[in-house]
Amino acid sequence: MEAVAVAAAASWPALLPPRTKPLLLLPLLLLVVASLAPHASSADGVRYDYKAYTECKGHPEPALYNGGILRWAKKVKDFRTADEGNYSPSFVLYNMSADTVYSFSCWVKFDGPATVHVKAKILSLENGGSQCLGTALVRNDCWSFLKGGFTLSSASQTSVLYFQTASPNASMVSIRSASLQPFSPEQWSQHREDRIQLIRKRSVNVHVSDSSGSRVVGANVAVHQMSRDFPLGSAISKAILGNKPYQEWFSKRFNAAVFENELKWYATEPWPGKEDYTLADQLLQFVQSSDAVARGHNIFWEDPKYTPWWVKNLTSADQLRAAVAGRIESLLSRYKGDFVHWDVSNEMLHFDFYESRLGRNATAEFFRTAKRADPLATLFLNDFNVVEVCDDVSSSADSYVSRLRQLADAGVTFEGIGLEGHFGKPNIPYVRAVLDKLGTLRLPVWLTEIDISSSLDQKTQAAYLEEVLREGFAHPSVDGIMLWTAMDANASCYQMCLTDGSFVNLPAGDVVDRLLGEWQTKEVLGATNDRGSFNFSAFLGEYKLSVTYLNSSAEGTFSLARSDDTKHITIRLSP
């Protein structure tokens, strides 16, 4: 059934409290239902639009999808509602399906203080429940882009899409270029798979000739993938040391690793001046022997709960400044060139232990010092709830971007965006929308600590994990994925394990194995055509190529890096 919509251009205090919403809204809904016209449905075959903006603009851009099922909104100059800065309901939606994925976007402006977070929410009148579907950091002097999305847990005959401000002073909210585009589950999945084919694979054309340079028709071509280009790895802990079954299980699957706790300051220097890198050294040796790359996590953790006790007890800024300088020098001089990334500041969107004591420019100085100490490492911020939830305005996509820009103004050249990804039930269209916005910065984005809450059963964990992994792998902005699935000595994990204590896969482990198999080109066999060529498409990575024809043969290797161009390989047979 198609979803239809109508505007509500007046304040609706009936949205408060939730239990009274259906009764108070019903008279208005009855007045407008007769005037509704059919709108586009998800059957139109529209492609997902990855367009997003992080800059505030003097004029809003046109609506995505020409407004989708809100096409009528382009004919309305403005939606302004006043409700003491709390709620600004805008759209009434009918016949919303639980099976449909909805992508929402609009441009927002308000009259009030300098900046305020505005959330878009969807309310089902049948049960009074609402969920956040997108947020934007909005100004009063320009238009900000809000992008998000949602799926409903159950069908809704009548829903309200409205806006909520975080400030009681932001009383006037204006919305322009609103769009709500439905996609069927099959469309959403197909768009995702099409994107994987486009950005994670590359076309190859092998040209075979004989010793005289003539084309060879019918030569047998065999291609075998030796390694994957896309980093997909897991956290590990000291429990893997000396554990051969665990090591073999890990090395068979992953090409990237991160230490769960062994590099953190409280682990490497539990007492002032008493440094101990023994476990970190051993873990690094294992990772390097497995031909995997290692992420450095982390240099500083802004949460005081995880700051070394003795650092918290330092009584002066000069003492703390000397301690942090020693931390950077000791850690990065020891491991210079060994870690591809460093999470310089962990969870600084939520906590400010160091900046509250050393000043607002402390983090910028951390980055500058780290870059001098290890110029080849990519330096990251890393935080939680950026993609996991919509309600945490401390770590919205716009909050992240704002912090990056503040640090850039202080002279920091940013290189990487870390998104932890500790999920309950993931809102997949919201995840994609956040990645769209962060992707506009043209920086590497990594999903750094992916897991699913242990409050869910194992089958549900696995299903949600698969959705998150597919979404991350398919997004053009994501350059790597790390699972937060380190197993300790008691065969337990932070939230989600991939195997039991005997390294027999749990449902989440089955998902990982299936996707790893799906996302690699193990072997391609074929023969050259009448032009002496053999064409195929393969996942990015390192390959071995073998060609035989009669008594002649040739071998070689080649790399497939990300590119829109076809990779041409010329190989000449030797007698």
How many extended strands? 26
Cα Rg: 27 Å
Structural class comes to alpha/beta
Gross morphology is globular
Number of helices: 13
First CA to last CA: what distance?
67 Å
Low-confidence stretches: 8-43, 73-85
Strand content: 25-35%
Provide the helix percentage. Answer: 25-40%
Largest sheet: 8 strands, parallel, barrel
- Major β-sheet strand ordering: 12-13-14-16-17-18-20-21
Mean pLDDT: 89
Question: What is the compact description of this entry?
Answer:
The chain has 575 residues and is α/β, with parallel strands linked by helices. It contains 13 helices and 26 strands. Helix 10 (397-409) runs parallel beside helix 11 (428-439) and helix 12 runs parallel beside helix 13 (507-518).
Jot down its keywords.
575 residues, alpha/beta, eight-stranded parallel β-barrel, five-stranded antiparallel beta sheet, 13 helices, 26 strands, 26% helix
Topology:
Blueprint: E1 4-7, H1 21-32, E2 79-81, E3 87-96, E4 101-111, E5 115-124, E6 130-139, E7 144-150, E8 156-165, E9 172-183, H2 185-199, E10 201-209, E11 220-228, E12 232-236, H3 244-253, E13 256-259, H4 265-268, H5 278-289, E14 293-296, E15 300-301, H6 309-312, H7 317-334, E16 341-346, H8 353-358, H9 362-373, E17 378-383, H10 397-409, E18 416-419, E19 422-423, H11 428-439, E20 445-452, H12 458-474, E21 478-483, H13 507-518, E22 523-527, E23 533-539, E24 541-549, E25 552-560, E26 567-572
Parallel strand pairs: 10-26, 12-13, 12-21, 13-14, 14-16, 15-16, 16-17, 17-18, 18-20, 19-20, 20-21
Antiparallel strand pairs: 1-3, 2-9, 3-8, 4-7, 4-9, 5-6, 5-8, 10-23, 11-22, 11-24, 24-25
Helix pairs in contact: 2-12, 7-9, 10-11, 12-13
